[in-house]
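Journal club prep, shared notes

We agreed each person brings one worked example of a sequence with its structure written out as tokens. Mine is Probable membrane transporter protein. I'm keeping it raw so we can talk through how to read the token line rather than staring at a rendered picture. Sequence first:
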Amino acid sequence: MALILVIFFLAGFVKGVIGLGLPTLSMGLLTTVMEPAVAASILIIPSFVTNIWQLMIGGKFLNLARRFYLFIIAIFIGTVYSPLPKLSSASEWVFPVLGLILIIYGLVAMLLPKSSISSKNERWLSPLVGYITGVITAATGVFVIPAVPYLQSLNLNKNELIQTLGLAFTASTIALAILLIRENSSETIDYYTSSIALIPSIIGMYVGQYCRNLISEKIFRRCFFFGLIVLGVYMLFK
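Then the structure, token by token:
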């Protein structure tokens, strides 16, 4: 329990600073000591509450919901009806694949220049990216690839990007909870531990938001993504 509290404080802190990273960091660290399905069940409540909080910051929720509704629907379809083995199957390949996803995400964020996608391509890319994100979510419990790089390429301003990430992450969290319940496995949602994990997540998010104004976000982002790469390498070859 002490380890869970520390992990979710760190994950909440990261989310407070850069607007993302709670599910990625918490899943990456938790799965070094427990099964992926168990880790995902603990993640549900902290992820849902902090994402709702992030989603409600700003006044463009309805506009963004209309713009990205196909993206959100595709996330649900990809997660609930994923063709890949699910988290609850405890497949041996889940751990290294999660590590590989962390490596790819870190490298993409650090090394590749920011790209731009036109509104014309957005119409067909949104449901495709949403579906792929859902499939990966169902198999690993991580919903940043390819959703985050895609949303970062849509020329959204800072507030719109933060709010859209909150929308995508909220949908992914709900879809993941539905999947875990639908699988009817022994690793159902651990509401007690998940509720306890919410407390350090909120504290960490408050502290992170405060520190956002004290440190360089650019430097922190580089350190964060480098840390994800290191963690991913460990998980891939463990």
